[in-house]
Amino acid sequence: MNTKLEILEFPDKRLRKTSVPVKTFNSELKQLAEDMLITMYQSMGIGLAAPQVNHRIRLIVIDISEERNEPMVFVNPEIENSSGEVESSEGCLSVPDIKTEVNRFESIEIRAKKLDGEEFHMKIDGLLSICVQHEIDHLDGKLFIDYVSEIKLERLRKKIIKDKKALNLEKQTKPDYLI
């Protein structure tokens, strides 16, 4: 049975822990990957890493297709080569309400395993490259906001607080039956 998992949100300290490599490839791993995909789709994300759902293993799921029907699973992914640089506008399911520019490698070569333990290599670029780098950062306890200057991060924090206050004020002025 597929289950939607709870997504940890910043500043939860569990998001800062480094994940351990997967050593056992079994039905539990496959089920976790399926549950992560369900969670990602229902949350309108294009990528999700196991640490975001409180599993400290090196597992990521991604689907950048418009139809949301091309899921990809990477177990123990590692970047072997990288080239170029691109600025991407990123958001994150674990850091809601923040979107900012991040510099990433334009293309990467990765090594990873499938859910059955079979190793594969891929050379990727574009949105998939950005997404894989973002999710691998989660495996290493890093968040996309770590790339933002402290000044810009403070501005983003103030915007979130202001937006939340406005939302709370709006909720208070509406009749209960509309909330």
Explain this structure to me?
- The chain is an alpha+beta fold.
- The chain contains 3 helices and 7 strands, in the order H-E-E-E-E-E-E-E-H-H.
- The strands form 2 sheets. It has a 5-stranded antiparallel beta sheet with strand order 1-2-3-6-7, with helices on both faces.
- Mean pLDDT is 90; it is low at 172-179.
Secondary structure layout:
Elements lengths: L26 H16 L4 E3 L9 E4 L9 E12 L2 E7 L2 E10 L2 E7 L5 E7 H14 L10 H24 L6
Antiparallel strand pairs: 1-2, 2-3, 3-6, 4-5, 6-7
Which keywords apply here?
single chain, 179 residues, alpha+beta, five-stranded antiparallel beta sheet, two-stranded antiparallel sheet, disordered C terminus
Short structural description:
By secondary structure, this protein is α+β, with helices and mostly antiparallel strands.
Q: Quick one: overall form?
A: globular
Largest sheet: 5 strands, antiparallel
Helix count, per DSSP?
3
Q: Name the helix and strand elements from N-terminus to C-terminus, one letter apiece.
A: HEEEEEEEHH
Terminal residue distance: 32 Å
Task: Describe the strand arrangement of the main beta sheet, using strand numbers.
Answer: 1-2-3-6-7
Instruction: Please state roughly what percent of the residues sit in beta strands, choosing from under 5%, 5-15%, 15-25%, 25-35%, 35-45% or over 45%.
Output: 25-35%
How many strands?
Answer: 7
Mean pLDDT value: 90
Helix fraction bin: 25-40%
Poorly predicted sequence stretches spanning 5 or more consecutive residues: 172-179
**Coarse structural class:** alpha+beta
Any idea what the radius of gyration is? Answer: 18 Å
